[in-house]
Design brief:
Helices cover 6% and strands 0% of the residues. It is built from one helix and no strands. The protein has one helix at residues 30-34. The longest helix is centred in the middle third of the chain and has 5 residues, at 30-34.
């Protein structure tokens, strides 16, 4: 970050979260559909960030709210 230029920190990168590669068939990314599933698309890096808590949605949504559009890995609790 000491070099000239713009610094990008992607969602979850500051927490050391990896891209989620084993998302069930709930993908909505156009790239996934255009390639008939050959390209997994970008959903793996769009999984909602965990904030706190011991179970999904890990503080991403308030208690009693609907589940997030993509599932969070259980290891993120």
């Amino acid at each position: 970050m000491a070099l000239p230029g713009t610094v990008y920190i992607y969602q979850g990168e500051e927490l050391g979260l990896p891209e989620v590669e084993n998302i069930p068939d709930c993908r909505g990314d156009p790239i996934y559909h255009r390639t008939q599933g050959e390209d997994p698309g970008r959903e793996g890096c769009r999984v909602p960030l965990p904030w706190d808590g011991s179970a999904e949605p890990c503080g991403f949504s308030p208690a009693g709210a609907d589940r997030p559009w993509l599932p969070q890995p259980s290891a993120w609790a």
